[in-house]
Each structure stands twice: as structure tokens, then as C-alpha cells.
Write a sequence for this structure.
């Protein structure tokens, strides 16, 4: 896991996680250049000190996708605690569901975002499982990242076949 998640960071109080349904009906995933191999997951972004959760959500959506979106609903909060030697650091993830109003993807943060793909909602469960199955130094990170995918799957699948 990246070092700052296991340490107190006065400029970061949590993150937003956004599941954006594209016009095709599928959910947007992204990958980043720093990953050793393509790992597709829901986009996320920091909530800075003094910034509201909603401000962070729309700023990060603009940075990571460039899409015009409509907020559909808030899906939940993941209240995690990272243990680093003798300290426990709280970290909160706010999970949102949104609808894209445009097809174009134009992230302003092109140096970080390496690519996009979309998946049907019912595949979110297998995306979560693939994150939990990462090996080496990404194992704990993958498990932690899988949790938001589980929330999205549970909230949006609505009894659809898996």
C-alpha cells in the first residue's frame, strides 16, 4: 500500500470512490501508469482538508474522467483503519453512484490515468475478486480496493443474475 495511507497526512482526510454508469449502461473502470500490469478498478480521489466531500467528488471526476455527470445516489462509507507499527490511522472512503451525461473521456490528469474500460454491473463482483487475488506487495491494497467494488455490486445489482 502507498506509504501515505499508513501514516497521518494532514492534507488528506479520506477519499471519494465513484461508480459512473456510462451511456452504454456499463460502469467505468480505470488503470494507472504506476501499476505493474493493468489493474482496472473504480476511480478514486483524495478529499483535501477544508474541502467538502461533494467538492472533492466533482473535482476528482473532472481530473480523472473529464465527464459531465449527474449524481444518482450515495452508496455508503467504508471506515477503514490502517495499522502501521504502533499506530492506527483512520481512513474513510465515500462511495457514490453517478450517471455520465457524455461519452467522451478526457481526464485532465493524463500522466496518472493509463486507460479505461467498462463492465456491466454484474461483473463488479468478479472485479472485486480479481483485486482480492493480487499477489506480492499489492495484496493488502487489492483487498482494501475490492471493498468499494463489493459495495457497488451489492447496491446496484438488485438481484440480477451473476
Amino acid at each position: 500500500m502507498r506509504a501515505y495511507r499508513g501514516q497521518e497526512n494532514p492534507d488528506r482526510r479520506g477519499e471519494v470512490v465513484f461508480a459512473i454508469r456510462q451511456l452504454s449502461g456499463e460502469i467505468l473502470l480505470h488503470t494507472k501508469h504506476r501499476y505493474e500490469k493493468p489493474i482496472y478498478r473504480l476511480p478514486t480521489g483524495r478529499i483535501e482538508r477544508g474541502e467538502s466531500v461533494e467538492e472533492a467528488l466533482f473535482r476528482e471526476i473532472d481530473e480523472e474522467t473529464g465527464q459531465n455527470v449527474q449524481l444518482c445516489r450515495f452508496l455508503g462509507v467504508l471506515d477503514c483503519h490502517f495499522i502501521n507499527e504502533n499506530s492506527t490511522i483512520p481512513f474513510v472512503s465515500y462511495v457514490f453512484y453517478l450517471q455520465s451525461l457524455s461519452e467522451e473521456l478526457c481526464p485532465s490528469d493524463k500522466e496518472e490515468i493509463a486507460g479505461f474500460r467498462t463492465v456491466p454491473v454484474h461483473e463488479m463482483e468478479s472485479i472485486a475478486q480479481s483485486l482480492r487475488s493480487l499477489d506480492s506487495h499489492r495484496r493488502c491494497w487489492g483487498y482494501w480496493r475490492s471493498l468499494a467494488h463489493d459495495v457497488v455490486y451489492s447496491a446496484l445489482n438488485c438481484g440480477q443474475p451473476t
In short: Strands lie at 12-21, 27-32, 44-48, 69-84, 87-100, 113-119.
